[in-house]
Amino acid sequence: xxxxxxxxxxxxxxxxxxxxxxxxxxxxxxxxxxxxxxxxxxxxxxxxxxxxxxxxxxxxxxxxxxxxxxxxxxxxxxxxxxxxxxxxxxxxxxxxxxxxxxxxxxxxxxxxxxxxxxxxxxxxxxxxxxxxxxxxxxxxxxxxxxxxxxxxxxxxxxxxxxxxxxxxxxxxxxxxxxxxxxxxxxxxxxxxxxxxxxxxxxxxxxxxxxxxxxxxxxxxxxxxxxxxxxxxxxxxxxxxxxxxxxxxxx
Length: 250
Ligand SMILES: [Zn+2]
What we know:
It comes from Dyadobacter chenwenxiniae. With about 250 residues, the chain is an alpha/beta fold.
């Protein structure tokens, strides 16, 4: 009986944690059959919840009952570092309390938070953690363009900070999969393989589901590209984690 290497070689936690930001409720809901096809569970980070319609609330509840998580993405999608400069109470009064109250009225009690615009500092994080959020998600980008020139490119498999190591970390970065991030399919397949081989969870996020190139200020990800990721994750038997599940997994 060989038990010595068992822990080192296990892949049972390997997975992917995918989230979506902002307020594309109808567009996200349209992906429901695709999520069902691959048994995928994801997290939706909702901002500006004061404008949620009854129909949108119904759709979010259905997604939640499917096992997806409804997280919070701010009341006004403001710049938290500027808001908190006037004090933590000011930040809470403007960005947290009103939105959380709208969410509660709609039947949601979010336990995960995505920083609007990826903007935050240690003080913002400590207020959010003290407010009861289990995990705070920031933004990681593998490619940046400036004046049309690519300034740097880093393969996602070489970005250790986009992998969750199940060390109960509460402040994490997810890789942007929107069109303008310029990710390729082979890079994503390698990134998923790394999650599998290292027994970690790859964290990804996007905005609006798009079916062609972004137009007129649209920002979002290509739906067939997301489907390739879901399909490969399913084929590799990777676990789908919602964001709040990451720090809970033992
Ligand atoms: Zn946002």
